[in-house]
Amino acid sequence: MNSDPEVMRYFPSLLSADQSDLYAETMQLGLEERDYGFWAVELRSAKGTQGPFIGCVGLSVPQWNAAFTPCIDIGWRLGRDYWGMGYASEAARRVLDYSFNQLDLDELLCFASLKNLRSIAVMERLGMVRNAEDDFDHPMIDPDSDLRRHALYRMSRQRWLSSQPD
Q1: Total domain count, the chain
Q2: Does 4 fall in a domain?
Q3: Centroid of chain to Cα 59
Q4: pTM: predicted TM-score of the whole model, two decimal places
Q5: Among 30, 36, 48, 84, which is least packed, fewest CB within 10 Å?
Q6: Residue 114 pLDDT greater than 90, yes or no
Q7: Is 9 among the domain residues?
């Protein structure tokens, strides 16, 4: 997944197999150290047993400085074969619910390159709110890259809870 040019189109680079393994190990360590991180997303098989791995969805803390950091952000990465099926939105809803009902967080942020229309569409389906004045140049992306400008979306605990059915 991390070596697929389409999946990684809006990231600075592809990941080698070793880099991808290290990324997975880092995600696992994060889950062991705190009550959140990135979780593997798997499809259920027809009999309710474990199905194929399709990607990851979860929470992270950006390790760089911006006007809105420190913060916790929600993100996702799915294999290309699973795009457009609602899996990212479904898994992200579960993470939002966990974040606000179990972790008792006040706010989650999400950001993506302005060119990443698929991720922006997921943020909007989730009900996240963007103020274009909060858009920013990602400090970890080359200043000459057309991926540098990012949209910033927010979801408050109050907004999430009020949007859920009783």
Answers
A1: 1
A2: no
A3: 7
A4: 0.92
A5: 48
A6: yes
A7: no
